[in-house]
Design brief:
- By secondary structure, this protein is mainly α.
- It has a domain of 113 residues.
- It has a two-stranded antiparallel sheet.
Length: 570
């Protein structure tokens, strides 16, 4: 109740602020045409308002700040995201409350769902939820968990196994989060590993490994951005080879992968994660009391007398991975040949539609899970359909979060939030500071917008020409700048509660979304700080090369972690 009252106060303050801005804006006799004109819109517009161009630039960061702040403060992520989108709509509607509410529904939310890429993710999530519902209700998850013993050393094996599976599913970060998280959740629950720790391992492995892999859904986008800028600037370098050369400079993703391994290997934690782990280990509460999981696969609804069948869980996951790999290969090969390209592995991966391949794979996974459920005698055909539908229903909460997060990203683009953040940096930066500055800037843009790919699309045409102009011919600065965009985008993505991969990780592990954010944030800031101070800055300054930077960063990170962390108290 107290939180609800504070939210009302915040809304009242925003309305007052809007009125104040409107008083300083355009005359009330001015009439603006709206993108979607209706009788209601025309009536509202006649009341006048303030054009967004007349507002100060810092106003553009208010929607993401409001959403992130309220989400962290009150843990009501749906309300926080809704208010953030509404504030953005209010600013875009020239501070007209009625028009902003109308545009919130018929433009921003509809636009978020109508985007083809977003629709693919929503369908993929629902299909995977249905598959997981079948796996759970047919005894697959129960059988998978029975494979694992429950002695103390198994907690280490459980965390390292999750990390290793995350390395294996390298071809796409979305598939990585959902497949690994959902597959390992019954195992880690049995080992009393907290949902917060599982969500962290999944989230902190997915984007880093996908961004570094030579074959993934990321590489075509990354190489494409590099190639576009090199062509525009007249730089005669091969974009793919440049991508490979930047890998040693990707300090944050590499150090984060090492950090996840070290945390699991040592069995130590610090901060909110340690408290979550001690709660789970001592009390058997894998989720915080009162937590609201981002998804719920209803393990408690599985009858105790149902026989565990690990095959019902393992086979559908194998089918998904196998069909996705085949889909990427055949789709990419066909498109490469159609484009007149030599069907090399690089061309195949670059031309393939990974989102389509993952949809095919998830559909095949659903069919295999349905067939196994009926064939094994665990469920009748009718009950199997009910289990499939129940699994999709369990994804509804997370799907709503995704749509709101995408809508918030849309209003941030319309308000040019990223442009304000970039403009705040200015031209004063010296060559030595460029990679580190770009790393922080990319993290800020990714944090505010919740998208790594969007951050790359925004920053590549802005900072690569800047680095080329300020430090012409300095290869270390150029490679450092390119890698800093990619690494900083992942860093901000890990810190942001509105990031789609962060939401998907909460969804796959059935973890309360804000519990996941609160426990992961200190770890992401810790690794990001080490990357910045021990690798980004010294390497750009020429103190040592990138491989030495990784070694120094890893050494400092491990030593600092050992000092900050402690063994868990059962």
């Amino acid at each position: 109740m107290r939180g609800f009252l504070v939210v009302l106060v915040v809304m009242a303050g925003l309305a007052a602020g809007a009125s104040a801005l409107s008083m300083d804006g355009a005359s009330t006799t001015e009439i603006q045409n709206r993108p979607l004109s209706t009788t209601l819109g025309a009536a509202v517009d006649s009341a006048g308002g303030m054009e967004i161009d007349d507002m100060p630039g810092w106003v553009s960061i208010l929607p993401p700040l409001l959403a992130i702040g309220l989400a962290l403060l009150f843990r009501h992520v749906l309300v926080a995201l809704f208010l953030g989108v509404w504030l953005g709509a209010l600013l875009l509607a020239d501070l007209s409350p009625i028009t902003s509410f109308a545009r919130l529904l018929d433009t921003h939310l509809v636009g978020a769902m109508a985007d083809r890429g977003h629709a693919s993710i929503l369908l993929f999530s629902l299909l995977l939820g249905g598959m997981l519902g079948l796996m759970t209700q047919s005894g697959g998850a129960k059988g998978l968990a029975a494979w694992v013993s429950t002695d103390t050393r198994s907690r280490r094996r459980g965390q390292l196994t999750t990390w290793f599976l995350g390395l294996l599913v390298f071809f796409d970060d979305y598939a990585n989060s959902l497949l690994v998280g959902a597959s390992m959740r019954p195992v880690t629950d049995r080992l009393r590993i907290s949902r917060e720790k599982l969500a962290f391992i999944v989230d902190a492995t997915a984007a880093p490994v996908a961004s570094l892999a030579l074959i993934s859904s990321w590489i075509g986008v990354e190489v494409g951005y590099i190639a576009d800028q090199f062509a525009h600037l007249g730089i005669e370098r091969d974009a793919y080879l440049t991508f490979i050369e930047t890998i040693p400079f990707r300090f944050y993703p590499i150090l984060m992968l090492l950090f996840v391994f070290w945390v699991g290997f040592r069995g130590r934690d610090f901060g909110p994660m340690r408290r979550a782990e001690e709660r789970s280990l001592a009390q058997g509460q894998v989720s915080r009391p009162g937590a609201q999981p981002a998804s719920d696969f209803h393990d408690e609804a599985v009858p105790d007398d149902l026989k565990g069948r690990a095959m019902n869980a393992v086979v559908p996951v194998i089918v998904v991975v196998f069909v996705a790999a085949l889909g990427i290969y055949f789709d990419g090969r066909a498109k490469a040949l159609q484009a007149g390209l030599q069907p090399s592995l690089r061309a195949i991966v670059g031309e393939a539609s990974s989102s389509a391949a993952i949809l095919w794979a998830t559909g095949a996974g659903c069919l295999s899970a349905l067939a196994l459920s009926v064939w094994s005698g665990a469920l009748s055909f009718g009950k199997s359909i009910d289990a499939w539908m129940g699994g999709m229903k369990s994804m509804l909460y997370a799907v709503v979060i995704l749509v709101l997060a995408w809508a918030l990203g849309g209003v941030c683009r319309d308000l040019d939030t990223a442009g304000f953040l970039i403009g705040a940096v200015g031209d004063w930066i010296s060559p030595v500071w460029i990679p580190a500055g770009v790393f922080v800037l990319a993290a800020l843009v990714s944090f505010a917008t919740g998208t790594s790919w969007g951050t790359m699309a925004i920053l590549f045409p802005l900072v690569v020409p800047l680095a080329h102009r300020i430090a012409p011919g300095q290869e270390t600065i150029l490679l450092g700048t390119v890698s800093s965009i990619l690494a900083g985008a992942v860093w901000g993505d890990h810190c942001s509660p509105i990031s789609d991969t962060t939401i998907l990780s909460s969804m796959a592990t059935s973890c309360d979304h804000m519990d996941h954010v609160r426990t992961q944030l200190p770890y992401a800031l810790f690794v990001g700080g080490v990357s910045l101070s021990c690798a980004e800055l010294p390497v750009a300054a020429g103190w040592y090369g990138p491989w030495v930077g990784l070694l120094v960063g890893a050494s400092v990170m491990i030593a600092a972690f050992e000092l900050l962390s402690g063994p868990l108290r059962a």
